[in-house]
Design a protein that fits this description.
heterotrimer; A: 249 residues; alpha+beta; Ubiquitin-like (UB roll); Fumarate Reductase Iron-sulfur Protein, Chain B, domain 2; 2 domains; five-stranded mixed sheet; two-stranded antiparallel ribbon; 34% helix; 11% strand; B: 665 residues; Flavocytochrome C3, Chain A, domain 1; Methane Monooxygenase Hydroxylase, Chain G, domain 1; five-stranded parallel sheet; 19 helices; 39% helix
Amino acid sequence: MDLTLKVWRQNGPQDAGRMETYPVSDVSPDMSFLEMMDMMNDQIIRSGGDPVAFDHDCREGICGMCSMFINGEAHGPNRGTTTCQLHMRSFKDGDTITIEPWRASAFPVVKDLAVDRSSFDRVIQSGGYISVNTSGETLDANAIPVPKGQADDAFSAATCIGCGACVATCKNASAMLFVSAKVSQFALLPQGQPERATRVQRMVEQMDKEGFGNCTNTGACAVECPKGIDLSNIARMNRDYLSASALEE
Amino acid sequence: MLESKIPSGPLAEKWTSHKDHINLVNPANKRLIDIIVVGTGLAGSSASASLAEMGYNVKAFCFQDSPRRAHSIAAQGGINAAKNYQNDGDSVYRLFYDTVKGGDYRSREANVHRLAEVSTSIIDQCVAQGVPFAREYGGLLDNRSFGGVQVSRTFYAKGQTGQQLLLGAYSALSRQISKGKVEMFTRHEMMDVVVVDGKCRGIIARNLITGELERHTAHAVVLASGGYGNVFYLSTNAMGSNVSAAWKAHKKGAYMANPCFTQIHPTCIPVSGEHQSKLTLMSESLRNDGRIWVPAKKEDAEAIRKGTKRATDIAEEDRDYYLERRYPAFGNLVPRDVASRAAKERCDEGFGVNETGEAVFLDYASAFLRYGKTEANIRGLSNPSQGEIIDLGKQVVKAKYGNLFDMYKQIAADDPYETPMKIYPAVHYTMGGLWVDYNLMTSVPGLYATGESNFSDHGANRLGASALMQGLADGYFVLPYTIGDYLSDDIRTGTLSSDSPEFEAAEKGVQDRIDQLVNNNGTKPVDDFHRRLGRIMWSECGMSRNEAGLKQAISDIRALREEFFRDVRVPGTAGEFNPELDKAGRVADFLELGELMCKDALERRESCGGHFREEFRTPEGEALRDDENFAFVSAWEYTGDPSDATLHKEDLKFENIELKQRSYK
Amino acid sequence: MALTGLFLCLFLVGHLAGNLQLIFITGEEGQQAFNEYAQFMTTFPLVKILSYLTYASVLFHVVDGIVLTMQNRKARPVGYVKENGAANAKWASRNMGILGTIILVFLVSHMQSFWYTMHFGDIPMHNGLKDLHTVVLQFFSPENSLGLVAVVGYVLAQMAVAFHLSHGVQSGFQSLGVRHAKYTPIIELSGMGFALLVPTLFAIIPIFLYITQL
């Protein structure tokens, strides 16, 4: 099939950026979206141009590196799908596809479609861990039983791949879904209890410092999240944050 | 020449006694010592976190935008540990034995035993960090079984175990970054190691955003840069996975060990066309419950290929469950190399089931029934219909493997709950890597290699769920201790300077290579060469190899390399974010590595594990080892050109396990 | 936002209960009852406290809304060329600011029409009480040249309230962390019910008054 791509080009964080149009032909429906982008870049390179920079790595939907805003939606039109897992069979011959980077002041553009998401790492560094040394000299793994339902919920929260689609899609560029997923994983497990209150406070504080917007509960993040992270995580974080702030000494 | 430094004493006591006797660095002195860790996968993150906790100053590097994105994240099935929670007779010895046997007797006994010993600590550690492993209804940890073993010792988190373990190690790393004990350099690529007076003293790194070259000094450098499966272009590795860090180390004196030992994983989604950029694994854990088959009659296979028949049209008696037929004791759970070769054999005979003829079925129909019956009993349903049972079974399978089935559906556009999946082997892991001694130090003093980047624990074939185990064992529990033995001599060295002729020369070498690539003005993009290299490697140095093919491959690769440097086109400049330039550097290294792999495969005149030489097989077609002449590790020394590499042999001594022809029948 | 918003929901219920007297008790009797009620509402100390709480809530809700909106704008300085918001969120949830602004404009005009008249305006007396009943009836009367405009404006404002509440009620609970797999669907359903019922009842009143005075 033949497509017209409208792609955001931006040389660096300071550049204003603009949309540019590229026709691509002979796209196979079995191609992944990124393979289609490879094909476009191949054409650009062979004709002496500057290929479009975009982030990608595992191409199996788990590393969270790919990040394209396709036709007005994070990771494109399909649900539960990262850009790398989106296949061209989801588009029609003759379609015009608009491709933009994640847009948020906390995710400055590096080049073209690649953005800097180190703000997420700093949020994790502010408290997204259990303070235990890696000596291996801990309790036996089976010493603390965890109810299966709770363990499953913690796992579901922990499947967040940190791609930033939640921020990209939120009309306020809020990072609540990402932060709450990590807060919830530990809040649901017995191991996470000792630091539960300080963790949520620190992570929320860091999130605000990074310049993410506020949550107005539109729920768009959970719809676009490729891993189906649930809104209940945000409620849990709100609950924990309120009680931590109220009970703070 | 090759001093493996294996401690003396009985096998089971070697590690403990080694730890008790190696030199330590006292806490005050650790603060004076800098360590560089390259790579932030399981091995790198865990090593960085542990070393920083101990008090060393750590600088960690990764080329991705966040340490959490390293490709360990994509490991699906699980992690082995000799916990014996299932009470099926598992033990440290049994894990050790299975791993040595699974590796077709080409690994070091002492290393593997140490791995089995620390495996239990890994699980304890990860649970303490909040890794949400799968649990049973009683709240205790669940296990599943994996290929090549007869116990259930694999801990898992659905089909995302690697992700959960990496996020655990990343959280430990993040904690140390927040304390300032680890300085993290993301979007940085190691371009060379710097050796000063015979010791590794730092690296040249490139900031991938600005293109600037940076000099970083350290008292020791740890490579945790993963494997080199991408030399095949199509593999289950991430697009960015590369050999460059290891290859630069090799060029600076680190020996490359067993480079031809490549793991071809039997259960991947088949190639769909020329455009394909990578292959996707379907976890080995699927072989637990799924049954692999092809039609028993060639005409049925042809009809399926033409699309006139579907899998479900083939009657039970017309199906050939070839693994169960050939290997009744292990059935669908034979090790990966055996399963892959068996699939290739059937497809080569004309029984393949997709358009390209390179696919076999992985069928869940009987698992739906089996699980459904159990679930119906648990729920107390009396006389459930066949349909109800199958629906219940699908729910159970969904809970266990849901994300894998979803992934298959997205890629293959086919619903695996309704029709069997199609799978075919693909490059997945490289057992070979930098040669290291028992302390994980390469042949360059002060330069270490951990995880997939070293060669040490898996011999000629890695068992499922053992890569995660090795990465974390090296990073959390082995390297942090053994590195002290070397560094204890370095406590008086003090701060190192990067203002030396060695750093100068290394940086100039890197700059020259970059300039050469960006100014080449060729006509073809980097991918063009990478794809062609991959085709050569896959056909001549893939699932089966022979002398003529390997010789041809070596000359083809040399020609391709020459063409690459003549005709590659790298757009843009060196001083900007330029992914094509990054790729060009990596492919240039693959073009050299590929040749060494073929040379290694040519020299190893036996079949073992993932290395199958057509000339050496048993009458039944199984791999035929030659323990008399080839029970050694091939360690290659770089001397200026891959073809001139010098072979050093480390003889493998088996004192606790009797060498036997591997049998899974 | 959540606390003040949910508090204002309670206020709406109280206000509605008072207003419904305009429909359910008519004639002389209704006039007397409504004026007594108005007198009570403007003088009883406890109600006074509640009313100040309500003013404060409105003020906070508005100011906080503006502050948050400004922060949110700052969080995305460069917008998307193409954004398909309808694909993942309801219209009301994406336009709470606009809806809130409409409601605020209505509120100012509403306060000017009734609250100001009641407290400081030139208002007729009836049986010794300020005759707010007549003021209201005349405001929504066909004889008043702007009566129909008032009715239409009032109904439109109530539609804005309805949309605002359709997102706001459940959003308030979510922000406070009140969420449970079993109870959240009930909260969401009740929230929608509330958003539909309360503004509808409010809107019926001026329509009723207009029609009955035809």
